[in-house]
Amino acid sequence: MSETTASSLEEIKTVAAEGAVVETEETIVREPKIDEQGRSYATGKRKTAIARVWIKPGNGKITVNGKDQADYFGRPVLQMIIKQPLVAADRKDQYDVVCTVKGSGPSGQAGAVRHGISKALTYYEPALRGVLKKGGFLTRDSRAVERKKYGKAKARRSFQFSKR
Questions:
Q1: How far lies 127's CA from each of 28, 85, 95, 133, 163, in Å?
Q2: Cα–Cα–Cα angle for 94, 96, 102, nearest 5°?
Q3: pLDDT (tens digit, 9 = 90+) per residue, 41-50?
Q4: Quick one: which H or E segment has residue 69?
Q5: 100: exposed, middle or buried (C-beta count within 10 Å: 0-12, 13-18, 19+)?
Q6: Residues 6+ positions from 116 with CB-CB distance below 8 Å
Q7: Residue 44 and residue 51 in contact, taking contact as beta carbons nearer than 8 Å
Q8: What is the model's pTM?
Q9: Is 161 helix (H, G, I), strand (E, B) or coil?
């Protein structure tokens, strides 16, 4: 080590020993994003599905593409997936959710709606961000079907080899 590096290391150690506190991060205060009609809007995505979600105070009704969520998503697992962010934030019967979703299939659409609800909740109540982030609801699930390549039977599968 050179003399300049050694002396700068000693200075850093003495400053640290004296208890000097260096604050580099500031606390970020997020403001609610609410439109004139008292709603928050967010877009959720999963696979090739895109969900546009609006939330507003209400009694807990979830509407997907003009239908009740129980009618649109017939499987109970998909209904549970949609409600996960509201249950985690303990706001199950406090917000009405209206969303339109297109693309992909039922599972991808349910994931997109869940992502959209989570983002809209954080826009309406920024204090809920920590709870939803910890539950993993704000992270977009980027897994999607891999494209088919030329010279291959599927994305990676080769055609059967024939020796003769």
A1: 11, 14, 16, 11, 65
A2: 140
A3: 999 999 999 9
A4: helix 69-72
A5: middle
A6: 42, 43, 44, 51, 52, 53, 99
A7: yes
A8: 0.79
A9: coil
pLDDT at 22 over 60: no
Task: Provide the CB-side half-sphere exposure for 79 (13 A, CA).
Answer: 12
Please check whether residue 105 is in contact with residue 46, taking contact to mean a CB–CB distance below 8 angstroms: no
Six-digit token pair at 116?
């959209």
φ, ψ of residue 62 to 5 degrees: the values are: -115, 120
CB atoms inside a 10 Å sphere around CB 111: 24
Rounded-to-integer distance, Cα 116 and Cα 92, Å:
15
What are the structure tokens assigned to 37, written together?
């009609």
With 0-12 / 13-18 / 19 or more C-beta atoms within 10 angstroms meaning exposed / middle / buried, residue 51 is buried
